[in-house]
Amino acid sequence: MDLKIGTCTLELVTGDITKQQSDAIVNAANSRLAGGGGVDGAIHRAGGPSIMAQTRQTYPQGCPTGDAVITGAGKLAAQYVIHAVGPVWSGGDRGEQESLASAYRKCLDLAVENGCGSVACPSLSTGAYRYPVDLAAGTALSTVISFLKENQKPAVIRFVLFDDPTYAAYEAALREILE
Ligand code: APR
User: Which domains does the chain have, with CATH numbers?
Assistant: First the structure.
């Protein structure tokens, strides 16, 4: 499913984010930037050790929840990996929504600062961090749409959703926003 926002395009697809040809891909990282499973494991496996070497050297202090940092992308087709730290879900009254929105905004700020025309994002926080996907989808999409309306870049933001239920949640959330 695609949505035009001015000259920009927001896309929803199913797939594996490590296979994306976009200028930047977003990693669902943890605040120690220590690697892990899910998207994080897949990106470091496919991109090789240079990505972790760079996070260790450039960001030894890690990255707080709701923030993001950028590195090269090693062997991946993308030019950059943007490591975003979404919140761990703990019931919804611990600022999870604001942290999730902030993580996406920081990703897009970094993408624009680094001249990326296309960015691929996973569904931050909805795996190991247990954020309910229906809620996360609404926040992710409304944050990205606001950013595109304000900035008119990057030209393409593609949500790369790993499975059909996640895709369906994002599609439903997008239809609801458009109503
Ligand atoms: N491409 C796209 N999406 C993927 C991929 C992939 N290769 N692998 C997993 N996903 C999906 C998951 O199915 C889920 O919908 O990405 C979403 C986010 O799941 P996680 O990767 O578990 O991310 P998150 O919930 O933010 O948890 C982050 O997990 O791996 C650790 O180091 C990471 O501690 C951090 C935590």
Answer: 2-178 (3.40.220.10)
